[in-house]
Amino acid sequence: MAKKTLNQPQLRPEVAEKYTATITPCVIEIQRLGRTVDLTQLTLEQANELVQDPKFIYLVPKKAKRKRAAPAVNK
Description:
The protein is an alpha+beta fold. The protein has helices at residues 13-18, 44-51, and strands spanning 19-21, 27-30, 35-38, 59-61. Strands 1-4 form a two-stranded antiparallel ribbon. The longest helix has 8 residues, at 44-51.
């Protein structure tokens, strides 16, 4: 995954809640789609659309955290 520094461009907060960037967020030209994508300005709807494409590897969904079961009480 991409390293985080103080001056590094970041994903929008709503996108960062749901996805992790595999590279430092920047402007990417996707030739097969014929479009340019700025990961720092990407909206959640656009991110959802792009992540559906299996060849788009720059954003990956965050895994849900597993909650621990409450310990059993012995009587």
